[in-house]
Design brief:
Blueprint: H1 4-15, H2 20-26, E1 36-40, E2 56-61, E3 68-75, H3 82-97, E4 101-107, H4 110-116, E5 120-124, E6 127-132, E7 135-137, H5 148-153, H6 155-164, H7 171-181, H8 187-201, H9 206-217, H10 227-240
Helix pairs in contact: 1-8, 6-7, 6-8, 7-9, 8-9, 8-10
Length: about 240
């Protein structure tokens, strides 16, 4: 069963495709500058009863032509069946859309991220018929953002960082910095990122409880009429309405 935490880990790429630029830099790949991003159907089922779905599929079209597909999978644990599934997804999408395909796996713990890096070789004995080499984002390469000003400069990346490092020892400090950065954001963004983090961190996890507590306070100087307090109270009122 797909969990809410699973959904949040890849859904942010659909809703906020600007996250692709810093992510590509994290992966040491040339970022798709000034590219149009289109969300494609994740259904990769053929005319057969077995349903197959990728978590998210994006078509990235750089302004100077070309383009590629980015298949995104959120992975919460090691799964030996994924090698075959991922090989199928990549092959199917390449055949259907006639574009190169990259597979990006998002993990929230280091053990799963290390495993997901592969490579996954399909074949027999010493002969490899097909090899899958995923790109992986996890606690080992996604930056930890502890400075509210840095978080405010790129709320999308800061939110993704908080999702990825939800089990990190510095999670409370990460979430505190992000909560303070929310005070400079527009109400729509505050609502979106707040809800996404509630879902992605889980309501009963230590990080999820910390986040709810941070956002219930809204400001470090209540009653002083600061910009952060005004923005938070306005966003909260609109959300309740």
């Amino acid at each position: 069963m797909v969990s809410s935490r699973h959904e949040a880990a890849h859904r942010i790429f659909q809703d906020r495709p600007e996250l692709l630029a810093p992510v590509f830099r994290i992966l040491d790949l040339p970022p798709p500058e000034k590219a149009a991003v289109e969300v494609l159907t994740p259904d990769v089922t053929e005319a057969r009863p077995l349903e197959r779905r990728v978590d998210s599929v994006l078509r990235v079209k750089p302004y100077d032509g070309g383009g590629f597909l980015l298949a995104i999978e959120a992975q919460g644990r090691c799964d030996p069946d994924k090698a075959v599934n991922w090989a199928y997804y990549v092959s199917y999408l390449a055949a259907k859309y006639k574009h190169p395909v990259l597979l990006l796996v998002v993990c929230q713990d280091k053990a799963t991220a290390d495993w997901a890096a592969g490579p996954f070789r399909l074949g027999m004995d010493d002969w490899t018929t097909l090899s899958v080499h995923p790109l992986v984002l996890g606690p080992g390469n996604v930056p930890v953002i502890l400075d509210p000003e840095e978080a405010a400069q790129d709320l999308t990346l800061a939110t993704f960082s908080a999702l990825t490092h939800g089990s990190h020892r510095d999670a409370p400090a990460i979430l505190k910095a992000l909560a303070r950065a929310m005070g400079t954001a527009d109400p729509d963004s505050v609502r979106y990122y707040t809800e996404l983090l509630e879902i992605g961190l889980g309501a009963k996890t230590p990080a999820g409880i910390t986040w709810r507590n941070e956002m219930s306070v809204g400001t470090y100087f209540p009653g002083r009429g600061t910009l952060i307090e005004e923005t938070f109270l306005k966003g909260k009122a609109e959300g309740e309405a």
